[in-house]
Amino acid sequence: MMGDVGLKYGPVIFEGVSPNAAFMTRVKRFILTARTKYQEVQILELYEYGRALVLDGYIQSTENDEFIYHESLVHPITVTHPHPKKALIIGGGEGATLREILKHSSIDEAVMVDIDGELIEFAKKYLDFMHQGSFNDPRSKLLIEDGYKYVKDIAPRKYFDVVVLDLTDPYGPEISRKLYSKEFYAMVKSVMKDDGIMVTQAGNSFFYPRTYARVLENIKANFSIVREYWVWIPSFGYACNFIAASDTLDPALMSEDEVNSRLKSRNVETKFYDGALHVSFFKGKVLLGKVPEE
Amino acid sequence: MMGDVGLKYGPVIFEGVSPNAAFMTRVKRFILTARTKYQEVQILELYEYGRALVLDGYIQSTENDEFIYHESLVHPITVTHPHPKKALIIGGGEGATLREILKHSSIDEAVMVDIDGELIEFAKKYLDFMHQGSFNDPRSKLLIEDGYKYVKDIAPRKYFDVVVLDLTDPYGPEISRKLYSKEFYAMVKSVMKDDGIMVTQAGNSFFYPRTYARVLENIKANFSIVREYWVWIPSFGYACNFIAASDTLDPALMSEDEVNSRLKSRNVETKFYDGALHVSFFKGKVLLGKVPEE
Amino acid sequence: MMGDVGLKYGPVIFEGVSPNAAFMTRVKRFILTARTKYQEVQILELYEYGRALVLDGYIQSTENDEFIYHESLVHPITVTHPHPKKALIIGGGEGATLREILKHSSIDEAVMVDIDGELIEFAKKYLDFMHQGSFNDPRSKLLIEDGYKYVKDIAPRKYFDVVVLDLTDPYGPEISRKLYSKEFYAMVKSVMKDDGIMVTQAGNSFFYPRTYARVLENIKANFSIVREYWVWIPSFGYACNFIAASDTLDPALMSEDEVNSRLKSRNVETKFYDGALHVSFFKGKVLLGKVPEE
Amino acid sequence: MMGDVGLKYGPVIFEGVSPNAAFMTRVKRFILTARTKYQEVQILELYEYGRALVLDGYIQSTENDEFIYHESLVHPITVTHPHPKKALIIGGGEGATLREILKHSSIDEAVMVDIDGELIEFAKKYLDFMHQGSFNDPRSKLLIEDGYKYVKDIAPRKYFDVVVLDLTDPYGPEISRKLYSKEFYAMVKSVMKDDGIMVTQAGNSFFYPRTYARVLENIKANFSIVREYWVWIPSFGYACNFIAASDTLDPALMSEDEVNSRLKSRNVETKFYDGALHVSFFKGKVLLGKVPEE
Description:
The structure is a homotetramer.
Chain A: E1 6-8, E2 10-18, E3 21-35, E4 40-46, E5 50-55, E6 58-62, H1 66-80, E7 86-91, H2 96-102, E8 109-114, H3 117-126, H4 128-131, E9 140-144, H5 147-154, E10 160-166, H6 174-177, H7 182-191, E11 192-201, H8 209-220, E12 225-233, E13 238-246, H9 256-265, H10 275-283
Parallel strand pairs in A: 7-8, 7-10, 8-9, 10-11
Antiparallel strand pairs in A: 2-3, 3-4, 4-5, 5-6, 11-13, 12-13
Helix pairs in contact in A: 1-2, 7-8, 9-10
């Protein structure tokens, strides 16, 4: 990081971290550019991160660090549930969230609902390292449907043990905004069993403190136990926040040993997540930045 | 983070995160640009982070998030020491590391050694929120000296309880490189009491895994207890790693309550660090990225 | 321009060339940042261009290439006038346009009207190479006034031989927009002698073809002889257009020898402009780009 | 160009203009990324410029402004030759230089020599608007060969009336460097008829004054009549220089009417170039920038 080095010329992804800060990552090769009915999809090779999925100009996940995001999203709540059988994923087009859920041998049904069928076809074709065959697991049920509509009108009531909301950012594309609303969380609750647990990714609390606070409030209006945690994702250029919620289960009460023992009994193998990290997450402290006066 | 927003034009700091990724942060106002004998110093106002210190083109600390870095650097080892009296800081020109050390009422002498006297004058003049008068605390002793030389030739032997190495990155300017060497850590050990403890910031382990591994090895060659932790620093665009080391004291064994009770008994007030975060740090997991083939 | 070079890290000016293209130029040193009543002013040293004036985030002129802009703005019309005595400049805060006008020994009065008195004070203090003492020339009259108001209400009628409009871009800050209107050109005409001639800088016709066409039309509505020319300005990242207008004088009819002989008889010395370049300008071809569908 | 606009996020081409300045242009769609034996090839859609060819990270030509470059390269020398029949092009993989040469009905043979056969296949497939079928013109002879070797060992002596060197920049990829040497120009001269004329693109004289001066010197060492001209190319972010050379023909002596009359008699239709522009080119003034001390 000396003053005499610099960014090499060529194609880059130029990405916003906040309204006043941007991130540039060098692109090695372009594999796909396509516009689906819902969003612009790019699949490309980044010098630093390997193959990457980019939606509407924003890096969603990359070969070299996707495990940090997907393991942190899925396991804390799934491990907190003592016997999770029925799982629901909204979003998660790459199939990596599904992959992580299915690692828990207790799961006998994982419903994944993504609005963008074309995206899933691209993921199947170009992003094997993400889904790793999870779409073909007999326990998987893939629905191409609006997640909001699915939860509102289609899903069975009081059915799911764990619900994972794997969406674009709450301050991001319009497509995901309603999936962070108070109404939506009420409907999510209605499809969960009484002792179910849910989690949502929640963007970044430091750069978007107001949006984050609103999402947190919308969740608190519906659940009595709400836990926040975050983890740095290198390819995002910032830390990603998560919010877990339940009326009966509290991930913050799980000990390191309990987590490790459940992972072992369910045959879950991970690269990053384990009992110590679980404790670390729920002992961590979420930070809200100062929003610059506009 | 919608596709229809972008980075506003005007002056920015263009900063490398890794050889293949860069960060751009908008500048609101330029306060000082100067070249000292050792480095280029800039003090400026950033839209997102408030007033900032930039050395050789790299953001060192900013008004809105410096507490994350400085509290995380200083308190984990200082709180782990049961009765820290003598503290040594190498680097830390802004005075914020000194400020944090002095919060521990048990400290009766804090020696700060920085090679760049001009930088310290600038900090005194323009960065009040960093030092907050700590240079004038009667317990402070400021030496303008090469930290390497101080530890090698000048410092008393077996004298310090805590040593804080607050340096530019190990893959950064030449000026700091020798302060990450095996020889240097041996000398640091010689100025510490037998039950002393030290910490160094260690750059970023994900983007510079080889450099980080070398620094870790150099420390392990000298100390029997070595603990790693990291925290995301928003204005850096990445997480910052820290390595703590001692022959007798282990920060990973401190409980949440012990930490909180020591902070209370020493009248330490913080914005971010506390017993829960301490536990979170030492339960966390350090990640080494895949270095792209060059 | 090999793939293995890149842009060095550090502070840069990040500037828009068009809604889809930006320009980054490395900054060596910051000299001044200030907000006047009308605009944000920065004076800084650029690695490639020397000292520069930046208004509202846009480079206005730099030490190493300002002569291209200022000579191209002033001399074509001034040399076309056979005996220019009274000159009016609207804008031109740096004083370099005034400097060029005053080179013509026939000029006995040069009125410069700039709305931003603070800017002129900064120029006097930090930009000697721009004005080169022209503010102190006894023929100069400097008025701190809104150029629109001056031309509408204050200026004597049928008085000026040459009028130079040295403004920010027609698609730029609000402050200059009305100075490109049909009404304003009618008023400008009213303060010119019948055989007077005027020129305006007109931004860039390739990236802003609609705005340029509108400005051209506004001028054509008022003058019977209208000539367009342009020149590449390295520090702008694009070519700058100019439009000259008169009811009697035609710069396109001046021969190379006539231009050179007038320059000589008036003791005008230049770095760039001469008879050949004059002919080149009016034989050149203005290009309108294709505006991307938004 | 107001301070409140900015560059939209998403993929961009990040390109160097000089060692201290860079250019960013937004990419709409990626069509091809491939590595040939000689260079990296990208074909993509830019928001501002339409479809573009990028070699080794540098924009070579774009749909919306390629005519400026190709017409300016080819016609000034071809029109200066009173009866050009045999033409040689070195480089020019897109086929647009060939297209322009073939517009002159007097041409009965146009030999194009490009080292990169894969690039030409990509151009044939994806860049119709560049070549417009010129590869299929019965007068065209395409050779996949090293241009240096062709001129040295293969080409007939004293054969060509016009020679066009359409290469990557003289300070650019290694692949083109030897094609700007004194030895190469001597060999080029040997394959030209005594009254032949040649032209080379010569990069940018303002940002690379030393390289440009060396190329100019190398040409002057071989030809008695050497003429320089330049034109701004929007998608390059700078002006492109050209150098024409002959022992008998002087483009600077052609009048506007002569140029127009030859274009007409040879049925040449252009978008940009004509007699007035020809005169403008050779009355223009080439500028050498100040190279910053490194």
